[in-house]
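Render O-antigen/teichoic acid export membrane protein in 3D.
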Amino acid sequence: MKSSNETKSYKINTFLNLFLKIGSLGFNLLTIPLLINYLGEERFGIWQTFISLTMIITVFKLGYDNGLRNRITALIAKDQKDEISGIVYGAFSHISKTTFFIAFPLIIIVYNIDPTRFIEDVTIPKEEIIYSLLIFLFFSFLNNILSLTDSISLGFQKSFFTSSVQFVFVFVFYIVIFCFFKIELGSSLIYTVLTYCVVRLIVYILYFFFVKKKFRLKVLKYTNIDSFKKMSYNFFIIQGLGLTYMYIDNFAITYSLGPVKTAEYSIIYKLFFSIINIFSILLIQFWDSSRLAYLKNEFVWIKKMIIRFSLLSVLILLGCLTVSVFAKELMFMFLGNSELEFERTTFYLFSIYTFVHCLFAIFINLFNGINLFSYQKIALVVMLMIYLSALIFGNLSTYGYNLILIIKIICTIVVLPILIVPYLRKFYFSTSLDVN
């Protein structure tokens, strides 16, 4: 593989991802004011807490999604495509069994607890929250299995397939909620959860059969996951640590400040993470392309991309700070006369957090691609220890959710050297590092 070929493949996938992801982000942002008007601020805050569960549930794939992705790429690089069907159906079989043994006990536990005990100042009926949560958990575990289809597309260097599916899902969900709002269907978490889950399930079933036909995957009686089991468990640890760190915010805010404050935080979070998601469009293909480049010793291409991503992160910081100057005007245009309150300081803090998060994500994606796991685990453990300690001993009810942003900025700055130093040693000073 030549650098020029790698760059060409990267550009094609990135262009298609950019087009589709921007469309998805657009409908995601349009859905926010629509859901606030349909559900109200309190139910919207609960809904955002549910959405956080979606990412946490992905941990129960035990890292096999990323392990499968990397293994498929390696088999393609070695021209051993005949082995792909075996590992694909091995992963599906293993995760299906794991899901069965985890999901049903968890659903039974949730049914027998009162979730309102963990929510500050809630007025929504307890039954509505419980039934909505049970439906959400059941369908989320089903989709957890089907979403392994994303790993197949990513492994085959077709990342724009996943972006296409996400676009279709977000678009259809927006249309259905828009219809609910127009016909003045009573605001209900249950209707919203059912719509979200059923639409996603149907889209991913169709996606699975498309990918199966596209890549000529065969259903085999004999399957094998031993070749990437160790790699998958490393991904499982990293993913579990990362998702705990990323998505504990909404639970902490809901518990300490109530669902209305969760709604405020989530809206600003979504706006800035739209910027991060656009940046991640470039990183989607970088993960897989850097793995191929690494296997072929194309280190120059990797170094060039790291420099470009770092410079782009600086431009993103400047753009975010500029947008923050007009924060209140922006929120008025977006939400109209809403009762939600937004501080300009929060926007500035989110701007800095977006910058350091982008830098962190560059090296995480590179290390994921080359199976360099130890430094990621160290960095994430340090971040999580600092973050949880600050939440436990800090006073969130007094300082509000700005405290969370300050903590996260400090955490990321502290651990960045843990990732940057090994990168410099590996690619600039030729010091040997063990790669799993």
